[in-house]
Amino acid sequence: MTNVEQSKLRSVQFLLGNNFSEAIKELDKVIELDPEDSVSWHNRGASKYNLDQFEEAIKDLDKAIEINPEGSGSWNYRGRSKYFLKQFEEAIKDFDKAIEIDPDDSISWNFKGKSKLVLMQNEEAIKDFDKAIEIDPDDFENWHLRGTCKFTLGHFEEAIKDLDKAIEINPQDSVSWHYKGRLKYFLKQFAESIKDFDKAISINPEFYDSWHFRGVSKFYSDQLKEAIKDFDKAIKINPEIYDSWHFRGTCKHFLDQSEEAIKDFDKAIEIDPDDFENWHLRGTCKFTLGHFEEAIKDLDKAIEINPQDSVSWHYKGRLKYFLKQFAESIKDFDKAISINPEFYDSWHFRGVSKFYSDQLKEAIKDFDKAIKINPEIYDSWHFRGTCKHFLDQSEEAIKDFDKAIEIDPDDYNSWYLRGSSKNNLNQFKEAIKDFDKAIEMHPQDSSNWHFRGISKFYLRKFEEAIKDFDKAISINLEYYDSWYIRGTCKYFLIQYQEAIQDFDKAISINSKDYNSWHYRGACKYNLDNFEEAIQDFDKAIEINPDESILYKNRASAKRKIGNNEGADEDDTKLLKE
To answer: Is the sign of the CA dihedral 271, 273, 274, 276 positive or negative?
Structure first.
């Protein structure tokens, strides 16, 4: 046996034992002695391929093809070497040649399909995998890869069938279990997707993508605490991938763990500062924590990256609303609505901003739109009714409060305001029922007691009204109207001394309302304290010189003390009126 034959034999033995480095040494000897031996050039190229020396492998395979262009294996290995060097277009040409020589070369069909998959030529890749499966139906990878292409094309049900076949052939293929889970995730079959990710993880506990996507499936199943555990593991495996930091932060955000969520969004932003959503969510967390100025900065950044993000414009408007910058908030809601005309929250909060800017008629228009978009949310009905109440459109306001109460019968505000609107329409008995309900829900709101007292006052149930004003005053000692009207009730009950004490307090709280001066004067008049009565009437007239009853009462008091001239002057003014 010659030296060449001996080296060839030894190289084959090394190749069969996967000892590629030693095989190369023997093939070097063969090629040096017989440079026209295409098989040796091929085998040395294949050995270098198996050692990931792809560029060197290509040189040897070039020579093998030059000597024997009909050797399909050399075209195949050169194509594979180019595939791993990411020279996909060139690799496809080599696989085409290999297939031309040997149409039953399933490996070349497989790699040609994989090259096209990477080039996003999925429909063409499927044809190659079809052929590979026809030749070798027991190779699970072709089923898996064809399923992956169908997944990319959105043919989810067909893709699942291919992955099921891959798993049937190789139930330990964690990647097929993973992609099957991904497909079910996209089909919103989250419970089923979690089972598939469970299997992938049991096969490969270090499979980052399966931990991550199992967490995402749990996120969309409202299993937020369990999802966080999966994201913890994913981050431990690969802390440099943005997605798990993002989703873990989002889970914590929805669990009201805002400070912890901010830390995750910090990391996500560090990894990928160009994803607007992290800036948006971090800003939302800061909003929740009351860090309004800092939140606005994050939302500004989100908008800078994606100016068409209506949600960031909306939350920026909400922040300015909380800062009582209503004019600025309206501009932000304008922008959100221009991007998304069906954004209920922006219509509603723009209406609320206009409400607090005393633009009540404009606010009603926004609430009209909000209600049209979502008629089942209480807030817009309540605020629209409130606008109409303050515009003295009491009948229309009551209709809105009716609807608000139907949606949320446990919010006392609508009961209270509906009662107030009924007061405006002199429906005092019906109003009392609404105030009863408001008081039952919120007995510490002085306004509920006060306005029920008003209803009873107009029904001339003065003693009952006084009890309600007593309660209102016990809750809020500075409630001017309750002191004033309680005094008025006592006036009509001829409890003048008691009434004067209430008017004293009312005047100490608000000395600019003529009514308390007037009624205190009337009490003093009825107690024959005419001089002091005149002083109170003087003050009332100073505040409101156009009220004729004040002159009439002062004239009467002046006559009681013999000041007929002064009384005549008041009568003259009364006549002029």
So the answer is: positive
